[in-house]
Amino acid sequence: MIRKKSFGEVDGEEVTLYTFRDVGGLEMKVTNYGGIIQSLEVPDRHGTNEDITLGFENLRKYRTKSPYFGAIVGRYANRISGGTFKVHGDEFNLPLNDEPHGVPCSLHGGEKGFDSRIWEAEEFEEESVHGLRLSRRSEDGEEGYPGNLDVTVTYLLTEDNELQVEYEATTDKATPINLSQHSYFNLKGEGAGKVLEHRLRLLADHYTPVEEGLVPTGDIEPVEGTPLDFTEEHTIGQRIDHDHEQLRLGNGYDHNYVLNHGDGEMGPAARVVEPESGRVMEVRTDQPGVQFYSGNGLNGALVGKSEARYVRHAGLCLETQHFPDSPNHPNFPSTILEPGETFHSKTVFAFSIW
Question: Which fold does the domain 3-195+293-353 belong to in CATH?
Fold first, then answer.
């Protein structure tokens, strides 16, 4: 059974919080404001459920303080250099809402991206599957993007302890699209310290190095021989302070990894193990990349659901995606959606015990 309750209002429009669980023990709370996963409870090796996602207890904090905790980000996830791109020769300009190292860019869709919009919501239950379907129209010119874009995001909890996220979109004008789920995970438990002892493997032999503004240079380089190599399992903290240019620029890990399975093919992206709780999270996707972010921007100023301060590295993100700034790099997989086409993508977060 899916339960729902009021989560507050935005400009007189009610926001709802939906709670549903699977037979394996996962329980998730999602709000139609930004498609935010407000909590995700997962059992540990002793069967004890704990919330493993960073976030807030009320809507006000999500509206004023959140660094995209748990949200759907778009119309274009990640960064677009200088906030400009061209489609079929026409130039478009986006709001500049981020400036790493003083270099401006457009981040996660602009000043008011998908993360801060109210979505229409429809809950459903099909045998052992519980889900929530979110939809909205991003109108032509919203945050500078061309075309009326009709978007649907579906969250599913399955009896196999999987969270499935499916995306679908159509447009009436050619437009770039890059959608992602921006949860910050701590498999030890929300507010339970840092993720530096989490063990991570990324199924990616290459990555897209960044320049000073944290946008890609356009190159695709091997991770071998660098501290960005997670083709074999390493703890996140093992090399995070290595004197490597890319880690200095990102103040830690904040990089797009080029997945080995390629664009459009469903395949493994990442595996995370938290030794103390025994929780394991495996990520599968049909997207060509995943952004690994080690929570470098958290500084203790934000107080989360457990009343704990979110210090640096209090959570990690694994944002399945197309590559950042792809409209400005013809050698990257295309993110342009044309009229008559349908964008479809799926990402699975599978939970188990080690």
Answer: Beta-galactosidase; Chain A, domain 5 (2.70.98)
**Residues 6 or more apart in contact with residue 224 via CB below 8 angstroms:** 205, 231
Give the separation between CA 199 and CA 354, rounded to whole angstroms.
Answer: 12
**Cβ–Cβ under 8 Å, residues 351 and 272:** no
State how far the Cα of 112 lies from the Cα of 351, in Å rounded to an integer: 32
Q: What angle do CA 297, 299, 302 make, to 5 degrees?
A: 105
**pLDDT per residue as tens digits for the range 130-144:** 899 999 999 999 999
Sheet holding 27-31, edge to edge: 3-10, 13-21, 27-31, 37-43, 49-51
Q: What whole-number distance in Å separates Cα of residue 111 and Cα of residue 96? A: 8
Name the 3-class secondary structure at 199: strand
Peptide bond into 75 cis (omega under 30): yes
Classify residue 248 by burial, with Cβ atoms within 10 Å: 0-12, 13-18, 19+.
Answer: exposed
Contact predicate 175/336, CB 8 Å: yes
For 250, other C-beta atoms within 10 Å of its C-beta total 20
Q: Name the helix (H) or strand (E) containing 267.
A: strand 267-273
User: Which residue, among 103, 102, 53, has the nearest Cα to 81 in the 3D structure?
Assistant: 103
* Per-residue tokens: 309: 């301060």
Name the DSSP letter for residue 113: -
Amino acid type, 102: G
Percent of the chain with pLDDT over 70: 100
Question: Structure pTM?
Answer: 0.97
Helix, strand and coil in the chain, % to nearest 5: 5, 45, 50
> Is the pLDDT score of 127 beyond 80?
no
> Closest by alpha carbon to 270, among 212, 183, 332, 333?
183
Residue 196 is predicted with a pLDDT of 98
User: Which residues are the active-site residues?
Assistant: 182, 319
Domain ranges of the chain: 3-195+293-353
